[in-house]
Predict the 3D structure of the following.
Amino acid sequence: MHLSSLAWALALASLAVAAPSRRSNLVVHERRAQEPRDWVLTRRLDSGAVLPMRFGLAQSNMHKVEEMLMSVAHPSSPTYGQHFSMKEIVDTFAPSTETVEHVVNWLVGEGIDKKRLKLSPSKGWIEFDATAEEAEGLLDAEYHVYTHAETGAQQIGCHSYSVPEDIREHIDLIKPTVHFLHRVPTPNQLRKRSFERPSTHIKSGLKTDGSLADVPADLANCDQLITLDCLRALYSIDYTPVSTDKNTFGILEFTPQAFLQSDLDMFFANFSPSQVGTKPILISIDGGVDQTQDTGFNFNGESDLDLEYAFGLTNPQPILLLQTGDIPEGASFDNWLDAVDASFCTFEGGDDPTQDGIYPDPLPGGFDQPESCGILTPPFVISTSYGQDESSVTAAYAQRQCTEYAKLGMLGSTVLYSSGDNGVAGNGGICLDGDGNPVENGSQFNPDFPVTCPFVTAVGATQVNPGSTVDDPEGACEQVIFSGGGFSNFFAMPDYQAAAVTSFLTNHPPPFSGEQFNNSGVARGFPDLSANGANYVVAVAGEFERVFGTSCSSPVVGSMITLINDARIAAGKGPVGFINPVIYTDKFQAAFHDITTGGNQGCGTPGFTSTEGWDPVTGVGTPNFTALLPLFLELP
């Protein structure tokens, strides 16, 4: 039984105040994922500094997450495709009354007046403002100020925190505490805080005035210049959408990354003339804007790439631009998840100032409205070309976010993330030491996140090998970037990929030890599939550039799934939703081009090697759209 919002408020106000004795039976709940690199511990935080404390309550029925997702996503399930409603999901996973009571009783018993406590609208968070002295006493923690040695940027955090042993089962995580922005911020990031990094790379040498004098139009040059026609030939894409009014395709971008309409039109004029003037439908999340005050590859490259190829491959499908974060502050993965799932939304509870955009934004020109909670029905396909290192977040943070992706799959959404561009290394080619900390010349592999979450579809990168044609087998991408892939240090191997991954580890054992990667044999492997990620011709800031990255691959796969959804809708069926359990089945293997050459070097090693079947470089391979379409149409 679930209480109404009023009932929850009354329950919160009337709880008993019995609680464990102060500081008794405390156990460490979370430790910092890794020590901050290039940050200096400057001083203890002033005892009177005010911290916006958010207590993430343990959700109910978490043992049902995978079961419920598989019931609508596994092709052998009798309820395949019968996706859940948002209300069903909220009601299933809302924290129990018992959990709320235990946490409130503990806080009140520690001297926090119950009038200061608020229960978030999602029922998932309790919040209150506390002085640093109160927070340190409550959590047996020490808060410090850290300063970035080069830029002077500052952050607040603690190394670890503790809670009473009998409270631990009722709390997922507490913020702000150990979660730390480990990436070195650029001047632009300091000015426009956007923490998720795009997975795009540029290679000079292809710059024109827009006449395409240097961009041959025929397929003979696809090993050097990828265009829409190259992709159609590579993946046998020959389908024109007919159900565009019922279908939805979302591209996720983080401010200040934004497209330029003039770039889209420049691209369309050369490759898809009927689309000149086409623009995405802007969905502003937390003040997200398609800003034009800052231009150039670093501001327009990702968005231009995503939209030019997504529009071109799905013409005439409208595309939703999920623009997240305002210009002064920016946003994080949590912010966009808030927008598609009000039950996750952490307005009045939960967002972490060191990771997430906090709204309303008091900065000049900031978004001055409440956080965008549940403003958008999740699109059927969401393509995301951003990521961060798995080692930069705690296991609790990653698990709570990963559960959200499972919920999106239950609702019928396909969530795609690019797998990273540094092979087995992390952002900037950084690897880990034996303690899991990022270091120069580290030898331990550093997987990406959120692609390691088993409830998203991780997309790696391939290439048309130099001198080859679109009719020849592709190889793993080894030009400018290397396809991100490997094994999670957080997440267990899901059942749907167990046979494929175990076969790889048994028949093609990697020549690395457990000191280099998680070789337990029970870890989530990634990517799940791949698409071309090299030599894309992209119009950026008035010039054509060659672009490389798994961020090229993700919108291409998203476009193909969108076309498949269109055909299913036209046939009176629903979207495919979470595709991983389907693409790993034996029946679907013939619909993928198996990639058997190339590797993903990093961390001073050749990385993993592509081989027959699934591998941690290119997954199950690249899609053959013509073969995939009838197989997906056969499903209920």
The chain has 16 helices and 29 strands. The CA atoms of residues 113 and 150 lie 42 Å apart. Residues 1-22, 182-199, 207-213 have pLDDT under 50 and may be disordered. Residues 191-634 form a domain with the Rossmann fold fold (CATH 3.40.50.200).
